[in-house]
Amino acid sequence: MIGQSEMSLENKIILVTGGASGIGRATVNRLALDGAHVIVADTQAELAAEVVTEAKSAGGSAELLEFDVAEPGAAANAVKTIVTTHGRLDGAFNNAGITGPTVKLLDIDPMEWARVLAVNLTGVFSCVQAEIAQMIQQESGGSIVNTASICGLVALPHATAYNSAKHGVVGLTKSAALEYGPKNIRVNAVCPGFIDTPMLAKGAGASETVLNGVINSLPMRRIASPEEVAEAVAWLLSPQSSYLTGVAMPVDGGWTVQ
Known about the structure:
Blueprint: E1 13-17, H1 22-33, E2 37-42, H2 45-57, E3 61-66, H3 74-86, E4 91-94, H4 110-138, E5 142-147, H5 160-180, E6 185-192, H6 198-203, H7 208-216, H8 226-237, E7 248-251
Helix pairs in contact: 1-2, 1-8, 3-4, 4-5
């Protein structure tokens, strides 16, 4: 129940991109439970609408905003729409992303490369740029969390485009944190490992053998639920993490310490 939450984000206006499924969906529900009004953004409007209904049914507050982060100008227009309606933007979780091709570098189609970077890196950049511009204008600061990956800290084989984009997100996060800390704007990243989402199932080819191999490679010997990543995101967006900025936080069951 909402009353059982600490309500640490009460009445905050927070944008979540890629909010229709997986980590995004779990984070929408977590933020709504914490009292935020969540703008659920995705290209999959029907699924995103279900998430909005889900959050409201639990006593939270949410609304749908359909847009594609890879479309030029879309992020800036989305932020303008939010501010026109609500007067401000207090936080954002830039989570929209795609997996990309699972092939060796020499076999990557340039169009596939461009698409992965357009969504996973340039899309995050466009969102961060628009969000920070608004947060500076409203002079109240804010908190931004970007979805990177363990692939932003290390590299997985046959994932050159994804590795490159997620390393870029980590660099973007650090740069933004460095430049806009004096404006009371915090920018951090979460680096999820192997999470029980449709993206993992797609990447593993829905193969039980592959998934078991993944599990056996983890110190904690299990994959995470999307809700476990959502908890980290909610904390980074909240005042409880007020002295953290520029952090790329692994949420990976210890995988990257090996």
